[in-house]
Write a structure and sequence with these properties.
The protein is 71% helix and 3% strand. By secondary structure, the chain is an all-alpha fold. The relative contact order is 0.19.
Length: 233
């Protein structure tokens, strides 16, 4: 199956969910090493621990990716931000609104953010079933290249996961390979599919190829994962 373009809103929705899953997976790997699943009270405690700084960190991770998604010329963006006197003191809300490029996308991102927060307040991360029950369609007039969409979800998840580990401030400082693979499979599923993907095979490469839909997407995913890993380590 070959998809060349994908709804911009679907990409944004998948990135928001991907951020939360990756960041709190990093927290879990650092604070509860070796534990396969957290209890509701543990997820709630992680949310409490990060509540004051979570929105600012969320924007810092998504900002450069959203800029790349929504603006064709990064140099022009830099000049425009300079004219607007953007600085380190610029409120996160203002930065996010700018990076989204339109009020419609900004409203969608903030709505998706709230969905993830509500899930954590209930003691869990948003399930893939809940995501597909209320997510933007794959097709739309406002689309971006699927290759850019894949690179974007990878970057958000890798940086959020690494940051979750770092901000936990424990002795754990490496990326857990099994967690990275799980995040990437989930991210590709929410990005490119209309429903949860059932994996009958045990072969990891075949699982990645299944969620990627075609060889081009698979190669884009693998290349971006490797590049993001090199950048982080």
């Amino acid at each position: 199956m070959r998809i060349t373009d994908i709804n911009r809103s679907r990409v944004a929705s998948a990135m928001v969910r991907g951020y939360f899953h990756a960041f709190f997976s990093g927290q879990a790997d650092a604070l509860y090493p070796g534990k396969k699943g957290l209890e509701p009270k543990e997820y709630k405690q992680l949310l409490v621990n990060n509540f004051d700084n979570l929105s600012g960190h969320f924007v810092s991770v998504l900002f450069p990716v959203l800029i790349r998604l929504n603006y064709p010329d990064v140099e022009t963006v830099a000049e425009d931000m300079k004219r607007r006197h953007f600085s380190e003191s610029t409120p996160s809300k203002v930065l996010l609104r700018y990076a989204c490029g339109s009020k419609g996308l900004y409203d969608l991102v903030t709505d998706e953010y709230q969905k993830q927060m509500y899930a954590l307040l209930d003691g869990h991360l948003q399930s893939v079933d809940d995501f597909f029950a209320d997510c933007p369609s794959l097709a739309d007039e406002d689309c971006i290249a699927v290759s850019l969409a894949i690179r974007s979800i990878v970057r958000v998840q890798m940086h959020a996961y690494a940051s979750g580990i770092t901000l936990a401030k424990t002795d754990v400082n490496g990326l857990h390979q099994a967690t990275v693979y799980r995040l990437m499979l989930s991210g590709m599923m929410t990005l490119l599919h209309d429903a949860p993907v059932n994996f009958e095979e045990d072969n990891l490469e075949m699982m990645f190829r299944k969620v990627s839909l075609n060889s081009d997407n698979f190669e884009t995913l693998m290349n971006e994962m490797n590049q993001a890993y090199e950048d982080l380590v």
